[in-house]
Specification:
The chain is mostly helical. The chain has 24 helices and four strands. The strands form two sheets. The chain has a two-stranded antiparallel ribbon with strand order 1-2. It has a two-stranded antiparallel sheet with strand order 3-4. Helix 10 packs across helix 12 and helix 20 packs parallel to helix 22. The two termini are about 30 Å apart.
């Protein structure tokens, strides 16, 4: 919802979650305007980073008068740096900075899981891989925008798959003050519903963007004007200032009339007086943790913070039972919500756990999801075999199915063989750049295959079939020229790892897409979230496999090693890959398998 939303949005756009302490907390959903502004800011940061990488490195090399051979490794670093920056920006900040990119932090919003828990690295991976689909068509963001408008919780497709929601940041605030001895007296002037809205507005006004605050204040000042028509301050003060003063006076009037003061009922007021010191201590410690992080606290203070948090959460439940005022309840909710996010954030995973996942968790997951991976392999190798056979039977088809550059390579293959040259010739100094380019391209292909799964698997199917037809057609053209060995001498070294990774990524996309077609007895959203976790774990593993494949393709495949050595090397790599996927992780399964969450 844009910032020109109706006044009712201040009260109605809430999502309620229950903490492990069985206390409900209401979160205010982020509106479309804030999310778009945050995305725009993040987009500018990403673009600025790419400009620095693209222009800064060459200009620096020129300014330092570096020899040409030094800039070649620099170009390799530029390619991999641009890839990591583009794909890793949102993942890093959301996965490891409490669901907030710099743009989200500026707009005071954050992504959290549906249960109110802080966003995990795996959740950040799912929602940001699917950002590619949400930004379509042509990076206009139409798909994501339509999804958010149709969703009751303003969710884009990435949020649906990751089980996340974007909420407004909970900022600290002062607890309500009881009326002073010299406060205004007299009967209340506002109806209960108007006073309740006014209390919410005053409690949240500091967290509202100035344009939205100005508009809400003007609208509500016009409404309450019918009840305070004779108050000259309506014309003398700003709308916002008048509402703040009116609320303070109305609170005093309601307290004097026995309708509840700033704290609500007499029991709630007693709770406030009794517990205020503990709440202040908790708030001071909370502010410190929010500024510096939980890791900076000594163990004794962490225990103290946890104890204070549970005490305040229990006080929130008591305040609700006692009929506390909306202002008191909101302030306690914000304090409990902020502490909940800090205490229940995912623990930092060590490198040892990451290595354990690579050693057993990933291959175990591949075996568990063998069926969609097998289907993906069929969708890849089936069209490859069919296109190969078609071109072998009708060579003229190659003119329409194979690019002209690949046709030229096939026609020149015999001459290259006679001259002792390979399929691709790369200077040793350029091999790092070639390797990084290949890795970046292949990883993006697997990401595309994965993202296509959300289109009920159709995008994944098209990606697999297209790449299979491309591979089979090229193989058929070289076979027609009698130069199959020329092609496969280059491909065989990295092919086993690369093609296996593509099939696993395709299986991940199909597994996620199956949630849309065959969810079983659960809702599609629930199944999508569950299968999305497995899918992103598979994608993480295939990314590492593609790093290995790209390194081989950049350094070994174009080298001048004898053909026999390359085929022997390929056989060893294939056997190691098969052993890894079939045998690794056969021991007892850990209680929390998978990569860092």
């Amino acid at each position: 919802m844009p910032q020109t939303a109706t006044v009712a949005s201040l009260v109605d756009r809430q999502v309620e979650v229950e903490t492990p302490e069985h206390v409900a907390i209401g979160y205010e959903l982020a509106d479309l305007g804030s999310r778009f502004a945050a995305l725009l800011l993040d987009g500018l940061i990403v673009l600025s980073g790419l400009l620095v990488l693209g222009l800064g490195l060459p200009l620096l090399a020129t300014w330092l008068h570096l020899p040409g051979w030094i800039t070649k490794p620099g170009l390799a670093a530029l390619i991999i740096g641009a890839f990591v920056w583009t794909w890793g920006y949102f993942f890093y900040f959301e996965g490891f900075r409490d669901g907030q990119t710099p743009g989200k932090r500026r707009m005071r919003i954050r992504a959290v899981h549906d249960g109110g828990y802080p966003l995990t690295a795996r959740g950040a991976g799912v929602r940001n891989l699917l950002r590619l689909l949400d930004m379509q068509p042509g990076f206009t963001g139409v798909v994501g925008g339509v999804s958010m408008m149709l969703s009751g919780k303003t969710k884009r497709l990435g949020d649906l798959a990751a089980g996340t929601v974007v909420v407004r940041e909970r900022l600290g605030g002062a607890l309500p003050e009881e009326a002073s001895a010299g406060a205004a007296v007299g009967p209340p002037r506002l109806p209960a519903e108007e006073y309740a809205w006014l209390t919410r507005y005053v409690a949240r006004r500091e967290s509202l963007d100035p344009p939205l605050r100005t508009r809400l204040a003007a609208e509500r000042a016009a409404r309450v004007g019918t009840h305070v028509a004779d108050d000259p301050r309506r014309q003398q003060m700003s709308h916002d200032g008048f509402l703040v003063v009116l609320h303070r006076e109305e609170t005093s009037r309601r307290a004097a009339a026995g309708l509840g003061g700033a704290s609500g009922s007499a029991q709630a007021a007693a709770l406030l007086r009794r517990q205020r010191r503990e709440w202040d201590r908790y708030q001071a410690l909370l502010d410190r943790v929010q500024r510096r992080g939980m890791a900076d606290l000594p163990e004794r203070e962490v225990s103290r913070f946890a104890a204070l948090y549970r005490e305040v959460a229990a006080d929130l439940a008591r305040a609700r039972t006692y009929g506390g005022s909306p202002e008191l309840l909101y302030m306690l909710e914000r304090s409990v919500g902020a502490g909940h996010n800090l205490l229940y954030r995912p623990a930092t995973r060590s490198w040892a756990l990451l290595k354990a996942w690579l050693a057993g968790g990933f291959p175990r997951l591949v075996r568990r999801r063998w069926l969609p991976i097998a289907v993906a392999a069929g969708l890849f190798y089936g069209p490859a075999a069919a296109s190969y056979a078609a071109i072998r039977m009708d060579p003229e088809l190659s003119r329409t199915m194979v690019p002209a550059t690949m046709m030229s390579r096939a026609e020149e293959a015999a001459q290259k063989e006679a001259e002792g040259r390979g399929y691709v010739e790369v200077e040793s100094a350029m091999m790092p750049m070639m390797s990084t380019t290949i890795i970046s391209n292949n990883v993006q292909v697997t990401f595309l295959a994965f993202v296509g799964g959300l289109l009920a698997g159709l995008g994944t199917v098209l990606t697999l079939v297209f790449n299979g037809v491309s591979l089979g057609s090229v193989a058929g053209v070289f076979a027609n020229h009698g130069q199959s060995l020329h092609l496969w001498t280059f491909v065989v070294g990295h092919g086993a790892v690369e093609l296996t990774a593509i099939c696993i990524a395709g299986g991940a996309g199909l597994w996620m897409g199956s949630a849309m077609l065959v969810p079983g007895r659960r809702t599609r959203r629930e199944v999508l979230v569950e299968r999305g976790r497995d899918a992103v774990s598979l994608i993480g593993g295939t990314t590492l496999l593609l790093v290995v494949a790209g390194s081989i393709e950049g350094f070994v495949s174009p080298s001048l090693l004898p053909r026999e050595i390359k085929f022997a090397f390929a056989l060893v790599i294939a056997l190691l890959l098969v052993a890894y996927l079939l045998l690794a992780g056969r021991g007892p399964e850990p209680s929390t398998p998978g990569p860092a969450r």
